[in-house]
Design brief:
This protein is of the alpha/beta class. It is built from 12 helices and 32 strands. Keywords: Leucine-rich repeat, Membrane, Repeat, Signal, Transmembrane, Transmembrane helix.
Amino acid sequence: MAYLLSNLFLFGSGLLLFFAPVCAICPERCDCQHAQHILCANRGLRAVPKAPQVEHAEDVRVLSLAGNFIHNISAFDFMRYGDLMRLNLQFNQIRSIHPESFKKLSKLEELFLGNNLISTIQPGTLQSLKKLTILYSNNNEINECIPKSFTHLNSLVKLRLDGNSIEVLKESVFEGLPNLMFLHLESNHLRRIDRNAFLRLSKLQFLNLSDNKQTELQDVFMFSDLKSLKTLLIAGNQIRHVGNHVFQSLKKLSKLSLSHNKISKLGNEAFKGLGRVREFMIDRNELTEIPAGLLDPLERIEHLDFSDNHISLVDQGAFGHLSHLKILKLKNNRLMNLSGSIFASNGGLFHVELNGNNWTCDCRMEKLKSWMTHAHSQGKLLTVFVRCLHPPVLAGKYLDYVSNLQLKNMSGFCESEPLSQPMESRGAVVETPVFKEEREKREKHDEVEVQGDQGVQGPGTTLKRKKKRKLASSRPKPTARNTGNGSLSDLFTTMAMFLEGHNYSTFALTPQEQFNLPLQDQSKYEDSKTAGIADACQFNRLSILNVSVEDITSITATVRWSTTPDTGLAHGKELHFRVLFDRFGHAFRFPRYVYTDGSDRAVTLQELRPESTYITCVESVVDGTLCKVAPRDHCTGFVTLLPSVTTEVNLQLITVAALAANALLLLLVGGVWLGRVLKRRIRSRKSSAHAHVRHMYSTRHPFRSTVATTCVSSEFSGYQTGRQLAEEGDLIQFPGDRFFDNNPTRRDDDGMMIRYSD
């Protein structure tokens, strides 16, 4: 009983010692649940509460006074908080801070003064804060940074001055911050930054100058001391011109933002020295072109944003040296066309934004369309959208769904067909190579038909020949005065062909092939030329032929097909192909599809399983519509090959080795477990069994090992007893809690991790 009473007395005294300091130092209206934290946030306080006159007030580590109505900070408000490490005074109405307010806070590490009405920080106010690492003074009314305000803050890592009214950064204003790494100056009124404003900030990694009023970037020495800078944000200013070599000292810069300015001119070497930049944003400016060589210094660029500018010209080699480029944004500009080989060296490109431009879909876009089609067939660049704005016939259509034939027909100008001579006068149709070729084909066709009159003639042969001659005579005669490759003449030729109701795709057969067809097929061919195929079902039935599978491997296979020569579609119809493939004979079907352009006749299937049976079918997509009837006549099956013998042997060896290792591990674990079980049983038998009668009266000495004799004292070497040994539950257990240090003054925040990232 006495022992129990003594334990209770000690426990009660420990509780009193633990709670006594908390109750003694906790000011009125505050929360002091933690022994070292005083929380007075959002309590309607109009002044800093005074701490009671007790010795334990110096043990406070965190003091929060945010969200109150405090107006001034006197010299005596924090005199008794000598060990304070974090002080939060945000969201008050503080206008003035006495120069000696923080004189006793030599251990302070974090000071938050943001969202107040502070207009200036007097020199010497922060002088005693030798260990200060974070200082927030954002969203105040500071209009000038006094250089001596930040002296002796050698440990400061992060400084926030954003949201103030600072207009000028004078020389050496941050000279006393040698270890500063994060500096926020956004949302001020900065108009001028002196040349040595960032002097001795050699460890600075993050600098934000966005949303200010700077008008130019031309001083090559402005960032010369920022050798460790990794992120530079200068968005939302009024910069119109960026000079040469401005960023040449930023050798470690990885992110640069010049967004939302008024930049219309860039120096030829404006980006020199930015070899490590991975993300560059210059969107929402007034750039009109991207010349060759401008982006060459950005050797490691991955994300490039030129959106919302006035760009109408991009040089063919503008992105030639950007081999690491992954994301490119050119949306909402004034581009009309792009060269097809402009992205030839950007093999890692997977996201391109080209929408919102003035795309003119003509023959200049053929190579770009081919590049997009090839990328889509490999499962890349699925988000590229090029929507035609001109000509009116194709307005609103996406380039993916415009055929190459339409691009040729709508050509107004082609880089490969320069305008050599002026257009002829009104009323004359200019003969182009395309029109000339068609005319020669038709004349040759007429000659073949005349010769055919001497042979076998069908019932409607004479009528068709007369009809063709009548159509030929009704066409306007081409003049021989302009035989150049003019683009405007091509436009007139195209218009004449459309007025005739024909399409280039209807002239797939040569005249000799047309003549060799049977009479029934000739009539069908003539009908398809005049009317054209209008739906996918008709195209599947009449045009798709010879579906086969070649180049079969363990994981790939190539599907090939062909089409009949009379593949003419009705006017305005678009053609694509869809290849379906699925594993054959499985209960759960998982069909997959590959879409190709109408000019393709082969597709490579990938990610197949070895030694599996597949079925593949080819069907057409006419004007975006599929046939509801499955194309059973255009399907074929194939079986993928087995993997190579070397791979199979290696896999077998690895499997055998893994099984052997697992078996050995199981045997080892089983042996250990069995040994422990046997050992426990032997011990239990020895402890529970009494001495045998024969052994009690035996004159022979019992067997005793040398190890036992060395471990047992000689006084007990001949003593034996039959008493059962004590179990673990019989041992006396003493409470160990009272041996722990219950001192309430021990520090719990000594290992606190400070985060500086934004």
